[in-house]
Amino acid sequence: MISRVADHCFWVGRYLDRAESTARLLQVTRTLAFDAELPALECWRPLVTVSGQYPDFLERFDASAADNGEIVQTYLTWAPENPVSVRNSIRGARESARSVREVLSGDIWQSTNQLFLWFMGEEASRQYIQDRDEVYRRIRSSTQLCLGLVRSTMLHDSPMDFLWLGVLLERVGQTARILDMHHHMLLGAAEGQHQILQTALWLSLLRACSGFEAFMRRSQGRVTRKSVVSFLLLEPAFPRSLRYCARSALNVMRRIWPAQDQGVAQSVAAPALARMEALDRWLGLYEEDTLPSSIHPLLTHVVDEVSQICSEVMQGLTGAPAEGTAEQSQSQ
Amino acid sequence: MTEQTLPAILDGYRPIPGTYDEMVDAAGTPRRHVGAAAELLAGLGPDEFARSQALAELALIQQGVTFSVYSDQRGAEKVMPVCLVPRVIGAEEWKRTERGLMQRLRALQLFLDDVYGEQRVLKERILPPELIHESRQYIPKLRGLRPAGGVRIHIAGVDLIRDPAGVLRVLEDNLRTPSGVSYVLENRTVTKRVFQQVMAHAGVRRVDEYPTQLAEVLRSVSPTDPDSATPVVLTPGPFNSAYFEHSFLARSMGLELVEASDLFVTGDEVFVRTTKGPRRVDVIYRRTDDAFLDPEFFRADSLLGVPGLMRAYAAGKVALVNAPGNGVADDKATYAYVPELIKFFLGEDPLLGQVPTYVCARPKDCLYVLEHLGQLVVKAVDEAGGYGMLMGPQSTAAEREEFRQKIIADPRRYIAQPRIELSTCPTWIPERRCLEPRRVDFRPFILTSRTGTWVLPGGLTRVALREGSYVVNSSQGGGSKDTWVEAER
Q: Which of residues 16-55 of A touch B (CB under 8 A)?
């Protein structure tokens, strides 16, 4: 497989998953913010932080704007100047897909192109005013369709592996950041608050990670900090947990660069592969009972390592470090 | 009023006087061979047609069947407008045309072999030697070099027009990187989808074997075993106007689409950078111009291209499709001599006519052209896409003066032809919701492998959508139509 094509496939996966995840987060936060029980909560500011764009946001708006749901939503959904806005993710996915149409299936390309045409057209702008939830829902279902088509219509070989590696690495980063953000909200805002509020926040966190139903099945309705955190970090069967994504990413990398391959490719991929193996091993050391009370350092480590791995994969493929800004580690 | 009682859209359609219409005769009666197409239109009212047209356009947008326009902002994509009324070519005429195209290609291939070999054609003055030596497309360094597989014109797109007498004539040869075949295939897909019922029994020849045939051509010229050969498609990248087509062809042949930076040359062999290390490449279907193939060979100032590629080509380690240097044969001045070339190389009379051409390199012709600018179409010999052209009858005095100066400064670069009243085809005019005659041309595609020549039974019909326009290029407001070649009965 051509290295440049691999690079584009990787980014198709990352952009699609990023668009889905950002839309999901916006949708969940809107629901949370509308909840009458939680009037004074700062729902929106953490979203900007999660996106890694807080410094850029502060350059464009004053600090109070981060509590303004409309400004934050517009910034994260539409802003052309925000590299991780939904708009730029959809555009990026479509442009990368257009550059490698020959290795994607026609169905994937058409779905991606349709999502792009709809989102950039008048219909989406109108719906954004009239029925915003529907806009977020459609972004999510369209990107999910594209990702589903990847697995059901592409050859399961290198192009798909690179695309899926992009999805998985993006997911590790997203889950880690969302978890970190909620952790802060709970430590800060929920201190001494009513149990109901805490539970509402934990459930919102699970929804933000598409994990509500899966968690309920595992925990049979018992919602505690420890059970939610360990579920999102360690549950081996939940496809968005850090452990699951890291292990899957490692498996994909091993398939792309098999250990018996002693060629150029091995040496090129060696740093990324070694780092991924270390991260997987490290996540394997934790159990529900051995998790530290503050998980912030742990999450920061994960985000930094994934960002490094992405850079190393890129460097191996194209000789250039990763583009984009979503790799910025979160420093709060 | 219900839809059934609305007049069918072909009623009341009349051709332009003095112009041949592809579908109806002067009285408006459908021609004999257009059977299924006329039947299709007879059954459609404007509402229904407009709906089908909208459906077709939506399908093209969603599939991303787009081209980029050079003059537009970087990367802007447009959908090539398509008109659903097909252009039909009868089985008999097709057979004659096919033979004529094959003959022409055979002669042009021999001409290129000769120009880059013995140059008998110059020694015997069939063609003025200056014409070759002063052509910007002639590459003297390639003389004596026989390409791997022996073929030079693997893919040709020959533009044909029909004159008022109903005769198809060659307007120009495209022997470098002719484009447009993806629209032929996509237009057919769309027509089939929209007019399922009619297409099922219309007796139209299929066009969808093109990718298979092309892949066969590429493999046939491989310097290594064709069965294990690795052909690739080389594109300048997503910002190229024909990028959709590059991607489309790579996809439908199952080949890798590469950019120059993906390739490198070691020891006269070409390799592509893959995730598992370098892989040898045997055949390159390149959709880049000669000048951007190899900076070492063509232009040291250029960073584009694959350094050493021409070395590998000269060593016979890689086949380039089409061969570099072909431009000397589709030069619009060389065109004037093609009937002579057919006689010289094949000892046959040309089966296809062409358009009378004044070659400004000939002083007598030049004088005539300068005196009749208002009646002629002047073209630069090495430009395409409707650029560098003067449509005399529709020009302003200032434009004519500009071309006068250009011709005087560099007569070799210009030719002129009388303006032919291109034939028309009924074309959907959305603003008026009716069919009106619009001028068309036709580009069939001819493939040549190591063992033989094949003509795609179909081709690209381009249509000048603006009323009164003669310029069909997509970059100048042209659209396209599906072309139906009638199956033999």
A: none
